[in-house]
Amino acid sequence: MTLPDTNNLPFPMFIANADGVITYVNATWRRTFGDAQDQPWVNRFHDLNMADLNAQWHNHREGERPLKLRSRCVDSAGLQRIFDIHCHPVLESENDPARIFATLVEVTDEVQSQAETLAILETAVDAIILMDESGRIDAFNKAASRMFGYAPEEVLGKPVTMLMPEPHRSKHEAYVARYLATGEKKIIGVGRELEFLTKSGKRTPCYLAVSEIDQGSRRRFTGIIRDLSEQQAAREALTDLRERLAHVGRLSTMGEMTASIAHEINQPLTAISIYAQSSLKLLDRGDADPGKLRNALEKLNTQSLRAGAIIERIQRFARAQESQRELAQVSTLLTDLLKLAESDARLHDMQIQLDLADDLPLVLCDPIQVQQVALNLIRNAIDAMNEIHCANGRAIVIRTEAVETDTIKVSVSDQGPGVAQNQTDLLFTPFHTTKKEGMGMGLSICRSIIAGHGGELSFTNNKDVGATFYFTLPVGAHGDE
Amino acid sequence: MSSVSPTVFVVDDDEPVRDAIAMLLDTVDIPCETFPSAQAFLDGYDKSRTGCLVLDIRMPGMSGLELQEHLLAQRAPVPIIFITGHGDIPMAVEAMKRGALDFIRKPFRDQELLDRVQEALATDEAQRADNANLEEMRTRVASLTPREREVFERVADGQANKVVAIELGISERTVEIHRSQVMQKTAARTLADLVRIKLTLERAET
Question: Residue A480: what pLDDT?
Fold first, then answer.
């Protein structure tokens, strides 16, 4: 067999005889490894031994494709390098033991970068999953195993949807198809919070970031998934704490309002009692006019409903309940609240005036908590005015307005003494109070509630007399809960 | 004095309470008028009308106590029964000090209110009768001549005719004539009557 001129080839090559002894090397080989003629070629490579090789070679020689071996070796400069050795059998005749014609392709850089990538992948804290275009899992790192509870071999080659709960599981294919068809990125490069499904069937809150690897004709996707269980638990704990605090605040407010509540309930009870006693009197006289009796009973009934409504209102307010966010019209909430607040104002002979905008955009909020904050501000106003025996006036004004397009402002203006300069910093400090009674928690609880809604609570002294406390709420948006 | 029968004036800002009290009074045939505020009552109040006031102590605008103040200033003698709520005892005590007849706490038994109302109406009647008497006494005493007046003062103080005669420098006989004139003009039948008239007028002046 005549060989073409192999000396110009950019890669090393050699020819070995059937015993594995090198009979020819090209110039590139000589430059790389020095002369190696008459030596067994296997000796040059660290990861190979003759026995293994013979077995492989024996099995292989019938095939068409070259046998590919990867091995490390030290070059003539003493550097360790990695090569793919492509061994082609060279047959002189049918029965001849084969000679080997081998070309070497260096893969040192590639192997190293792969090792680096793998190391990064395996030490990453976040779960990293590689998927092909059809959504089958190509790679699954250690963190992914930890997070999902699957060993890599349990998931490799399987559809990534096995890690998704419904409804995403059923929709995933459609998501991918839509992306491949339209190129419209809903999640790629954006990232979002969602839930994943672990091997044990538990739904875990995660943050998912997906990126696309363009490998020419082949597209692959990597998903990096961060476990948000702890963050979510912390957030839930905060929300829970806030709710409990808000509830304690409401109970304490109700406690402070006992007198006005008792007064409020006493009114219908008094009327009920007199209607009943009058009816009895009519009956005792023996000439009861059924029309009069009927009238009395109807009025009595109306009054018992009135008493029931008062109790219902208080109960709704005092109940411990999970925070329920709903879209609400703040002006309506304040109109409802007025019934509760007015009993207190009446007791102190003060008037509450409403100046409510009726076309405000809806706000996503916990209605009871918003009413709670407003009630607190109204009660503070009453206390402030009481402190100076209403010397400046007896009116409290509640105002709602839209500020810019995305914020609603609720303000409560009083005619009290205003906030003293030395109190301005202390006002929102827990357990600080200027009142004889009270825990000093009111305003700090209010501020916490409003912060939970993504708003702000503050105050200004009025130009003429008194102070205005106000809070803002973002329109139709979630708070930081 | 008006010829209308004694009326209970009910002043309470709570409509159902007002209405219920009116119904209760109606069942025992006591005439009654209701007012939603102290001001509404004052606006139409006729001092000469007989009756009593059933007054809510706590109302927006003018409170029950303030209405009492106004009536005192007008020297309107109408007896007041205050209706009080849960924590109103200090106010009720204040009202009593200023001469309120009584106070009752909401809710109350019908008989409690009716007894107080009867009492108040009786008080009003007695007061008005006393007042009428007083007026008459004043008129009668005013009709005395200066000399007769001097005799009246001294005799009613318990001085003997002889002492009066010496003090005034007139004869005992003349004192006797003046004294019988005084008895006649003041419609006193005995010396005791004369003494009572003097004391009553003195007390009314202070």
Answer: 42
A194: its two tokens? 């969602």
Dump pLDDT digits (tens) for A22-71: 888 888 888 888 877 778 888 888 877 777 777 777 666 655 677 888 88
Note whether A282 and A313 are same-domain residues.
yes
Does B60 sit within 8 Å of A349, measured CB to CB?
Answer: yes
Of the partner residues B26, B87, B110, the one whose CB lies closest to the CB of residue A259: B87
Is A389 touching B (CB cutoff 8 A)? no
Least confident range from A173-177, A385-389, B171-175: namely A173-177
Question: Model confidence over A337-378: pLDDT tens digits?
Answer: 998 888 888 888 899 999 999 889 999 999 999 999 999 999
A198 and A173 both lie in a single domain? yes
Contact assignment for A274 to B63 by CB distance below 8 Å: no
Q: Which of residues 291-350 of A touch B (CB under 8 A)?
A: 296, 299, 302-303, 306, 346-347, 349
Structure tokens at A305: 């409903």
Q: Among candidates A402, A412, A300, A295, which has minimal Cα distance to A359?
A: A402
If you compute the radius of gyration of chain A from its CA atoms, what whole number of angstroms results?
41
d(CA B149, CA B141): 8
The total domain count for chain A is 3
Summarised one tens digit per residue, pLDDT across range A180-198 is: 777 777 767 777 888 888 8
Query: Does residue A344 lie in a domain region?
Result: yes
ipTM, 2 dp: 0.74
Burial (Cβ within 10 Å: 0-12, 13-18, ≥19) of residue A446: buried
The verdict on B22 and B48 lying in the same domain is yes
Which residues in B87-100 are b (16+ Cβ under 10 Å) and which e? Answer: ebeebbeebeeeeb
Q: Based on the domain organization, do B151 and B121 belong to the same domain?
A: no
Site of tokens 């109700």? A254
Q: Name the residue range of residue A72's domain.
A: 13-107
Joined tokens for residue B14? 């709570």
Query: Who's near A237: CB < 8 A, 6+ residues apart?
Result: none
Look up residue A445 and give its two tokens. Answer: 């609880």
pLDDT value at residue A481: 40
Cβ proximity of A14 and A102 under 8 Å: yes
As a whole number, the mean pLDDT across chain A is 84
Dihedral pair phi/psi, residue A480, rounded to 5°? -90, 15
- The boundaries of the domain holding residue B160 are 143-205
Q: pLDDT per residue over B6-55, tens digit each?
A: 999 999 999 999 999 999 999 899 999 999 999 999 998 888 889 999 99
What is the C-alpha separation between B131 and A215, in angstroms, rounded? 116
CATH of the domain at B104: 3.40.50.2300
**Cα–Cα distances in angstroms (integers) from residue B199 to residues A202, A387, B79, B206, in the given order:** 100, 49, 25, 11
Q: What is the DSSP letter of B83?
A: E
Q: What is the CATH number of the domain that holds A301?
A: 3.30.565.10
A2 domain-assigned: no
Residue A443 and residue A304 in one domain: yes
Q: Which of A263, A268, A349 sits opposite B86 (nearest CB)?
A: A263
Which of these three, A227, A262, A291, is where a domain ends? A227
Do A209 and A262 lie in one domain? The reply is no
Q: Which residue type sits at A449?
A: I
Report d(CA A427, CA A461) in Å as an integer. Answer: 13
Is B87 found in the same domain as B188?
A: no
**Phi and psi at residue B34, in whole multiples of 5°?**
-115, 150
